Every structure is written in structure tokens, then in C-alpha cells.
Amino acid sequence: MKEIQARQSSATEVIIVTTICFGIFIYWSLQAVSAGFPSGAGFSDSYLINIALTECVLTFLAMMVLRWQAYPLKSLLAAPDWRDSGTGCLLLLVAYLAWAFVCQFFNAAHYMREPIEKMALQSHPTMTGVLLMSIINGWYEETFLLAYLMTAVNKLGASTAIGISVLVRLLYHLYQGPVGAVSILVFGVIFTAYYWRSRKLWPVVFAHMLADFIGLSAQI
Fold first, then answer.
1. Side-chain half-sphere CA neighbours of 11 within 13 A
2. Cβ atoms of residues 196 and 162 within 8 Å
């Protein structure tokens, strides 16, 4: 396993940056849980574009905080690479196979009643919205969950660092319902464990982008 070269972050910095990047999404997710998982209007173009733009604004704010803290921002960059893109495809395949195995423990009829499935049935995005969301969301989540958050808490050990990253990921996806949350847990553990071992961000970013694209384009 490669050693982490980024400087250690203070607890205050980690809390502030994580709150900026994921606080509002966790709040919205918990609101959905407390309201009984309302399905809303699905993944419309306006919904996807608003989320993507929100992530861009939050990225700017988080980067300003990190720059003020003299954080090495270059360590957060995921440089696209064809070979690593292939690794990302394999990583996504492993995640899908793991999820297929876990799905055997769920009743199919129950899964179709999940909030995420109801949202999908009401979704009619265009390719523009799907591409924008897939690219920005995949980059955004993995950059701040892995390249920043998990790296910032790596001194706590592998299990704790991975657990913190996966927990934050799970919290802002709770709106998808119980089964949807389990799928996020499966994918999150696989993506996070891979990054912990390899320290390569682009394969995970690409796998996430591809997963979003496959899931959303099916609703076009």
C-alpha cells in the first residue's frame, strides 16, 4: 500500500470541510427519512442540474477553506488515464457482482417499493442532464470522500478511516430507502477499500461516473 503524502488535517478542518461538502445533502436525506421517503418528481433535468451546480458551489467553498489552511490542493486532483479508466470499469463490475450477491437476500417485490425505484419511474432526464450529473457528481463525491476525508483521518487506522468515509456516504443516500442504502453501503465499501489499498483516485471517480451514467440513462 502506498503511503499518504498529504499533510495531516486538524479535526476542525475536517469537520468544516465535510460539513460544507455533505452537510446539506445529509440534512435533505434525513428530512426524506423523517417524512416517510416522499418520492418527489424523480430525477428531472432541473433536479440533476441543480444538484450538479450545488456541488460546484460547494467545491469552490471547500477549496477556499482548504487553500486558507495551506492544504496541498493538487493532492485532490484525479488525472484521467485510459488504463486507470479500465481499472475503474473492473472496479464497477466487482461492485455490481457484490451487489447481485447481496440482492439475493432481498425480496424483489419489496425492492420495487423502494423510494429510489419510485423516483426512477417518475424520471425523464435528457442526455445533457445525465452527462452533467454523472461527471460532476462522480468527481465531487470521490474527491471529498476519499482524496480528502479518508486521507485526512488515515492516522486513525484503516478500519476507522474507511468506516468514516462510508458512513458519510451512507448518510446522504438514506433518502433511497433501506435497500437503496444497503446498495450504497456495498458500493461504498468496495470503492473505499480499493482507494485505501491503491491510493489511485481516478479509477474510483470513473467507476462512480459510469455507475451514475448507467443508472440515470436507463430513465431517459
1. 1
2. yes
